[in-house]
Amino acid sequence: MSKISKKKKLEPKASPSKVRKARLLVVDDEADFTKLIQTILVQKGYVVDTATSATQAIALQRKNAYDLALVDLRMPEMTGLELLQYLKARDKAIFVILMTAYGSFSVGIEALRNGAADYVAKPFKNKVLIEKVAEALSRRHQYLEEQHSIRHSSVDEL
34, 78, 87, 119: which could join 54 in a potential S-S bond, CB 3.0 to 4.6 Å? Predict the structure, then answer.
């Protein structure tokens, strides 16, 4: 076996430096809470920006493309549901998880009806947050692959 073929066998399919890390936006009017979530998610390898108001979140979304946003349901300027609708109007591919201290089944149903990928009741365990984020990002990846397939099959039909 030549040295070249040995090298090929040892090389990973995608080097970690070339894999794009998911970019997340955390929006909550409690700055300490956003920093806590940011710390938890950065430790899991995500790139995380924070905002303490809907205005700040909107400004950040105008500058950056986010894979997922974690949005508090109750904020002073606008509700989490209103911000969810704004974020999705600007980027149909963004997935949003609503966070609420007023967790109830009806709140969850309302969030899902309005386009949220999921919701989580505060206070939550770090493990629950990490699992919900990973699941939402996995579903987003599937969604993007489906959209890509649809676009290519439409082009092929022309």
Answer: 78
Question: Parallel, antiparallel, or unpaired: how do β-strands 68-72 and 118-121 relate?
Answer: unpaired
Contact 111, 98 (CB under 8 A): yes
Query: Within 13 Å and on the Cβ side, how many CA atoms surround 132?
Result: 22
pTM: 0.81
Per-residue pLDDT tens for 10-58?
Answer: 333 333 444 579 999 999 999 999 999 999 999 999 999 999 999 999 9
Does residue 86 sit in helix, strand or coil? Answer: helix
Q: What is the pLDDT of residues 64-91, one digit of tens each?
A: 999 999 999 999 999 999 999 999 999 9
Helical H segments across the chain, by residue range: 3-10, 31-43, 54-63, 80-90, 105-113, 126-157
Neighbours of 128 (CB within 10 A): 12
CA distance 100 to 124: 10
